[in-house]
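Repro:
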Amino acid sequence: MPIDAEFLEILACPACKSELVLKGEDRLLCVACRRSYPVRDDIPVLLLDEATLEEEEARDVRAES
């Protein structure tokens, strides 16, 4: 079951308090600081230790190629 739209509207990035948008079905992306938070079992994990930066993900993919 995907995250409810009303619930998504009240969520905010724990780092910068900006809006989060659903990226695919398993990530929430901050529109301001570009941190990406996992969604596990339809529950957002909004912990800074679990977050990754979009730039880091792009670098990791390039390094694996």
